[in-house]
Amino acid sequence: MSSFKAHSVLPGFNLALGFTLLYLSLIVLIPLSALFVNTASLGFGGFWDVVTGDRVLASLKVTFLTSFAAAVANAFFGLVVAWVLVRYSFPGKRIIDALVDLPFALPTAVAGIVLATLYAPNGWLGQYFAELGIKIAYTPLGIVVALTFIGLPFVVRTVQPVLEDVEAEVEEAAASLGAGRWDVFRRVIFPAVAPALLTGFSLAFARAIGEYGSVIFIAGNMPYISEITPLLIIAKLEQYDYAGATAIALAMLLISFALLLAINGLQWWSSRRGAR
Q: What is the widest separation between alpha-carbon atoms in the chain?
């Protein structure tokens, strides 16, 4: 016990730890426990029947595949945006840096309406894609666009500080030893930003899974095609099927936890490998 307290540099550690556990219990643990309790009323057979229904499985497939695709897109474009903001000086840089945070401040419903208006077949941007035979709004592709919009800041703001800490002298030293630009990026820069990039990816992915407001307007919400799981949960609640809604939510929670655990394990492995 004495060795445990020896690591407590700040005074009031016991009080702070107790407050932290109480806060997490009220905000996280108790609501999650209620989710399990409400689902338990169905029994395992009833739970399995709900979550393996054709419509539920189709919505889960749409939700997780589009969330993953948007997170991958955000990982790539977020790295590019962070690189430009850190490594280059140009007019309007501060404005662009501020615009990155716009999805945080913009209500998701407003974002959904704007995106649906832009990418509809007769919209400002959608009409040009329609001429090429590409339909964005009211399809899974539209969901990816909306999720990419709301998830980009998570990657940029996670990678940006790490890029700022990468010293230019290290890159210059690698270049002076004969390394090309691609080799410098692959062997010097990317290993340094990979853990932060994985963190941003996991944050964008987790945010996309539970997104509702910005998606429902552009998705079209067609069962088996573009219906997301959060919308199906809302529909269950409107039908007063609370047990069914919590069963679907629990299935989403378990799948999300497993995927995020795998991503965090990959992040831990990459950080350990980079430290060698």
A: 72
